[in-house]
Amino acid sequence: MNILFLTISNFNSIEDRGIYSDLMRRISKEGHTVFVVCPNERRYKESTKLIFEKDNFKILRVKTFNIKKTNNIERGISTLLIQHQFKKAIKKFFDNTKFDIIIYSTPPITFTGLIKYFKHRDNAKTYLLLKDIFPQNAIDLKMLKQGSLLYKYFRKKEKRLYAISDKIGCMSPANVKYLCVNNPEIDASKVHVNPNSIEIDNANSLKIKNDELLKKYNIPEDSLVFIYGGNLGKPQGINFLVDVLKEYYNNEKVFFFIAGSGTEFNFLNKWFAINRPINSVLLSEMPKFQYNNFLRAADVGLILLDPHFTIPNFPSRLLSYLEFSMPIIAATDRNTDIGIIAQENGFGFWCEHGDIQMFKKHVDFFVNNKNRIVEMGEIGREFLINNYSVDVTYSNIFI
Fold first, then answer.
1. Contacts of 184 (CB under 8 A, 6+ apart)
2. What percent of the chain has pLDDT over 70?
3. For the chain, which has fewer Cβ within 10 Å, the N-terminal or C-terminal residue?
4. What is the pTM of this model?
């Protein structure tokens, strides 16, 4: 079959690692022809271009305005214009192609007209990978006002996207419940759990303590290494991470690796510059292979989500932690079930974001029970294989 995949994620190659590239690579291995359409943001100063990776894998990078890591005005304009830019490019480069299945992810929610056009033109099936529930997440973070004209506009767009989708894959059971309760017009039979997933790399995910890395950052051999990798923005409630660092300030029993980028990076960077902790380090976003070295050296993964969220989120950084056989501590809002899933299945602990005493209790558990880390890490990796493998996601879409 011909599979059209629409995304605002950055696609450069079939060999990229990530939740979308891994899935598209898995689909192509089954003999389907994959047509990836993604932005080529203006910051790259390139025109629209078509990349032929293999006979059955093509990447169309469409020139757009900046969508990520830009100001809200440009992001808003980009979100509104992108479906028209995509449609024009698809018609130009894939004009003689009939699509059998259209797969797309949120964000954004503004692809409805584009999806509708090709669905009706080709009598295609449509599948939504629901990764972001907008505009409610913007309401939770006080970026939009409930009942405002902008909210009503985007809420209408959101409902139209659900209506045009033949199937909707949600990241977790809590996501399924939230979607159906808050959108009762949706036929519940077309909504199911289809979680974030990866192609598990057995060769490169072995746990190996890197002596050079430990020496470079002056990490004592008997320190327990906690890692936070990924977005450092408003949705993560980074103030709480600072509270944790203060609580363990210069405590040589623990060490914190923090790596990523986002709107709160500068805030964190200033805190590090002023306080100069000896048991933690802040690093900017880095290539995947380099980040993997830190994952190999770490013992426990950290997940943070702002406590004001009323929507369940499921950060994909969990997958990297589990792939490298480490348990987690999740500090989230009460609606997100990532921590509960970890706790109930024996590969981590949960506390409400902001509850520093409970977070400390979990940290101290690992400090005082280092023998449990390997055991819980192995349980987590097995859970990943059985539940968050790209094979599972593929089956949920095609079988």
1. none
2. 98
3. C
4. 0.92
